[in-house]
Each structure stands twice: as C-alpha cells, then as structure tokens.
Specification:
Elements (H helix, E strand, L loop, with lengths): L3 E13 L12 E13 L16 H16 L2 E5 L4 H10 L4 E4 L5 H13 L7 E8 L5 E5 L4
Parallel strand pairs: 1-3, 3-4
Antiparallel strand pairs: 1-2, 2-5, 5-6
InterPro entries: 6-PTP_synth/QueD (IPR007115), 6-PTP_synth/QueD_sf (IPR038418)
EC number: 4.-.-.-
Catalytic activity: 7,8-dihydroneopterin 3'-triphosphate + H2O = 6-carboxy-5,6,7,8-tetrahydropterin + triphosphate + acetaldehyde + 2 H(+)
C-alpha cells in the first residue's frame, strides 16, 4: 500500500512581542496566522471500517489541531515567561485578557516546533506528522519537517 500525505489548513489570530529584539516586533502586535498540518500514513484497507480508504478522517485531524493549537492560541497574546514581559502578561491577565506564557521566544520558528510536539502526542500510532507550515504574513512563514529532525 502507498503512503499518502494529507494536509489540513487552519487559521487563528494571535498577538505576541519579541523581548530584546532590535526591530518593530519588540512591540506587542498580532498576526493572522495560517497553519498547514500535513500527516502521512497508509489508507485504511478494512472495507468494514467506516474510515475505509482514509489515512485519517479530516475531522479527526481537525479535532486534534483545534484543541491543541487553535482553541489555545486564537485571540491570545503570547509572551516568553523568562523575560520581563511576564509583568505585562500578569497585568493583562488581571484585566481579563487571554495570555499564554511559553518557555521560548515566541517567533514563528519556535512556535512551529512547539505545535509539532503538541500535535504529535495526539496522533494515532499509524499516522505520522510529516510537516507544518506556519505563516505569520502572506510572505513570511516557518516550516517544520519530520525528516529534518
């Protein structure tokens, strides 16, 4: 049986700031992120299985990514918890804002690595994460490939 890659796209709005950065992105700002999730596996061959012919049901993949990434990061502001931004984060939280503190600089590069770890934990054993593409603008994105790891 052939290995097949399938991809599902997601979008969410997230704010962040890059502490210590020497450009505009040191300021709190946001992006309309687009995340493409590509998994690889063999289509189900059991004709009695309701998922016959599928690598994974797109709906099942959607549930994983929505729960682990989209629902968590959509309309949140992300800060590195190891910087003075933690003070700003606490102030925003006290005012009712959704803030996520991470242990890394919240660049697209680091976020895509974090997302890969979160998604991989929930995939069925016979499905492997192939790649992720996280776009922060129309022309700027970070990619993660399992083969590079």
């Amino acid at each position: 049986m052939s290995k097949i890659r399938i991809t599902k796209k997601f979008s969410f709005e997230t704010g962040h700031a890059l502490y210590g950065y020497d450009g505009k992105c040191r300021n709190v700002h946001g992006h309309s992120y687009k995340l493409s999730v590509c998994v690889i596996g063999e289509p189900i061959t059991d004709k009695d299985n309701v998922k016959f012919g599928m690598v994974i049901d797109f709906g099942d993949l959607k549930k994983i990514v929505k729960a682990e990434i989209v629902d968590q990061f959509d309309h949140a502001t992300v800060f590195n918890k190891n910087t003075p931004h933690v003070e700003l984060a606490e102030e925003l939280k006290n005012r009712g804002h959704h803030v996520i503190l991470v242990g890394y600089q919240p660049t697209s590069e680091n976020m895509v690595v974090d997302f890969a770890k979160k998604i991989q934990k929930h995939l069925p054993d016979h499905i492997k994460l192939h790649s992720l593409k996280l776009q922060e603008t129309e022309s700027s994105f970070a990619e993660w490939y399992a083969s590079d790891q």
